[in-house]
């Protein structure tokens, strides 16, 4: 019996050694698979980071705004399908506190300070016109598919002669210009003639000059003018 036990011991030891070896190989394969998975994930992160670095600085803000505009368009379509007015539905979803906060923010962002100079007036007009522009997202997606990365110009891009505006775009521009001209004519309309006003000019240019002089020096020359009219001037 002692002989059989001596023969069984090397066999048990070999089996234990083989089991231990299999366990180590299994752990080695698991570590190898984890390393390959980590390498793959790191490569994906590097590629995504490279894409983010090549995007414009304000890409996230533009993306968020485009997603918001898409949601608004979907909401408008849903309201139109139900026969509801989108503006009324939108106002019903806004609380009074949010409306007051947005109104204060709007006034603070673009306050009307009146006329200061022509450059400021031109900038204010430009900001007002750009806020009215509604982008055509479908046309934008078509152009992006057609031109790819060339749609986003860089300092080396050749822009002159490469863009041909659509007929709809030209019509929108003409309509907007006609609206501006009509509004400008209302502001610069000719003032009605006053028959009872004193005639102290010889032509229209002289009348404008006299009005300007009266505006700046009228308070200093009022007494002299009255004396001249009465004939009591020395």
Automatic annotation (TrEMBL):
Function: Involved in pre-mRNA splicing as component of the spliceosome.
Organism lineage: Eukaryota, Metazoa, Chordata, Craniata, Vertebrata
InterPro entries for the chain: mRNA_splic_SYF2
Quaternary assembly: May be part of a spliceosome complex.
Ribonucleoprotein in keyword set: no
Positions of the UniProt region annotated as Disordered: 1-21
GO cellular component, one term: Prp19 complex
Gene Ontology biological process terms, A to Z: mRNA splicing, via spliceosome
Alphabetized UniProt keyword annotations: mRNA processing, mRNA splicing, Nucleus, Spliceosome
Stated name of the protein: Pre-mRNA-splicing factor SYF2
One Pfam family in the UniProt entry: SYF2
Family the UniProt entry places it in: Belongs to the SYF2 family.
Compartments (UniProt record): Nucleus
Domain of life: Eukaryota
Keyword RNA-binding recorded: no
